[in-house]
Design a protein that fits this description.
mainly alpha, 21 helices, 50% helix, 6% strand
């Protein structure tokens, strides 16, 4: 077989307009897609995450073939599969003898370094093209960040609104303000119920993948069934439309709320589909804006949704590439406690943790407040090693790729980057959980008690965390009030808080759980 270029598509690059596929001759060029074991096990990914990516890859290969492309698709159980990207590219080059290899730069440092090695190993020209599926390029982000003493998402977000024109009325933001976050903090209470999420029935190809995952990854974390993720572009678009029409109008009010039995509430659960390329982020933002302009969704809901994509998603991607590959190992607070076993087993008497961990295990998903203010807050207060926390998040969530997950974990959640992403740690006592959820009702622990074996552990852990890190945070103006409150406590009360925190952490160290 004679071919021109060998064009490579990775598992999170499932977009017809991918730079590696542009300006091609489908009759002469060949697309290479590879399912490789290295990518499934470099962290032990959730079964559903593996199934989603492999199913979506196979569906995308079908889409390309239907469009006239020649596709060389290497399945995971191919007996000749070398198990690595480099091994499969080398095997394809030896077999097909292309005149060049064209690839879109990988989304993670680790894989991009692998791509760069191909130039010396393959014996043919290798072109690594930019991934321009993001709304802000790496170069543009670096230009924005240059000479800034601090990087704050809010100012980046305003800049991006002006660049794109999203939710702009001329030179002014729609509604006269940039951010409606203060309107988006209604608490979750029992009885709050959201519309059903879009669910895709597994097709024949997906059923084959599910059987493969059962046989090859039985020891990995998480439940595989039921599997309802969209895996085709058309299914993803239907899921997006379902969200726009049914959940977006109330998303803003309740985006921080948590309710037992309502894992998704009004969240879109579109992030896994965006991050593998089935949905275009800018198109989604424009589609949401249509709902506001038409009067079908309020501004606070649409602005909140757009901010998550145009603001946070683009911001953390810029931070990831700007900060470099050592970012994941940062540990500004010197946290060294191993990740407790309960993060994997779900065995805990804390209802808030049990709810978030069971959703994670069963769905490969938890919404941003469950991640940030439940599992992330607990890890922060308990002093868990941020790299172990990072690897857990990377493994367990279907939307977790290092470029988006690491800044959210190392930076926003664990403050391990010392303030690159956030100006203060996102730390909270049980009062926050009680205010924003119905989790505390019926919990084995009493959120009103501050100390003792029956008190909510987050209460003592919160004050113990502040005391441990006082030299770091006492001059932070956003934390001054908390330290003033702590200083008003009697010495006996302070000691009781620290004793309660120590007793809980000793139990955690011994048992891997609070039980």
């Amino acid at each position: 077989m004679t071919i021109g270029a060998l064009r490579i598509v990775l598992g999170d690059q499932l977009t017809p307009g991918l730079s590696a596929l542009r300006h091609a001759d489908p009759s002469q060029d060949m697309v290479l897609m590879m399912e490789v074991m290295d990518e499934a096990v470099h962290v032990r990914h959730h079964k559903k995450k593996i199934a989603l990516i492999l199913s979506a890859m196979r569906a995308f290969a079908d889409e390309l073939q239907d469009a006239g492309w020649r596709v060389l698709y290497v399945q995971l159980d191919d007996p000749d599969n070398t198990g690595s990207f480099t091994g499969e590219v080398e095997r394809a080059v030896r077999r097909l003898k292309p005149d060049r290899v064209i690839t879109t730069e990988a989304s993670e440092h680790r894989v991009l370094e692998t791509q760069r090695l191909w130039r010396d190993r393959l014996g043919v020209d290798v072109e690594i093209l930019p991934d321009d599926r993001f709304i802000c390029s790496k170069i543009d982000f670096l230009a924005w960040a240059e000479d800034r003493k601090t990087l704050r998402m809010e100012f980046f977000y305003r800049w991006m609104r002006q660049r794109t024109g999203l939710l702009m009325d001329g030179r002014e933001p729609a509604g006269g303000q940039w951010n409606f976050d203060q309107d988006n903090r209604k608490p979750g209470k029992s009885g709050l119920c959201a519309p059903a999420q879009f669910e895709a029935a597994p097709n024949e190809r997906t059923i084959e993948v599910l059987d493969l995952v059962r046989s090859r990854f039985s020891g990995h974390f998480g439940d595989l069934d039921p599997f309802t993720f969209p895996v085709t572009r058309s299914e993803a678009q239907r899921a997006a439309e379902r969200f726009m029409q049914t959940s977006l109008p109330r998303f803003g009010d309740f985006q921080d709320a948590m309710v037992k039995g309502q894992r998704f509430l009004f969240h879109s659960v579109l992030s896994p589909l965006i991050n593998i390329g089935l949905l275009d982020p800018l198109e989604l933002c424009r589609r949401a804006e249509e709902e506001y302009r038409s009067g079908r969704a309020p501004l606070n809901a649409v602005e909140g949704f757009i901010r998550q994509i145009l603001g946070w998603r683009e911001f953390v991607r810029g931070v990831y590439w700007r900060e470099g590959p050592d970012y994941m190992r940062r540990n500004r607070l010197g946290a060294t406690r191993p990740l407790p076993a309960m993060y994997w087993t779900g065995a805990t008497s804390m209802t808030c943790m049990a709810e978030a961990l069971s959703a994670t295990r069963e769905d490969a998903y938890a919404h941003h407040i469950q991640r940030l203010m439940i599992t992330g807050n607990f890890a922060l207060l308990a002093g868990i090693d941020p790299f172990e926390t990072h690897e857990w998040y990377l493994a367990v969530y279907a939307d977790a790729f290092e470029w988006v997950e690491a800044p959210n974990t190392i930076g926003m959640s664990q403050f391990a980057d010392g303030g690159v992403v956030g100006s203060k740690p996102y730390s909270a006592s049980g009062a926050y959980v009680d205010r924003m959820s119905d989790y505390c009702r019926g919990c084995r622990y009493d959120v009103k008690q501050k100390t003792g074996p029956d008190a909510c552990p987050l209460n003592a852990l919160y004050w113990d965390f502040l005391a441990r890190h006082r030299p770091t945070f006492q001059t932070n103006p956003r934390m001054a009030q908390m330290y003033r409150t702590y200083d008003r406590l009697s010495p006996d009360h302070q000691k009781a808080l620290h004793d309660s925190a120590r007793a809980f952490l000793d139990r955690l160290d011994t048992n891997g759980t609070d039980q």
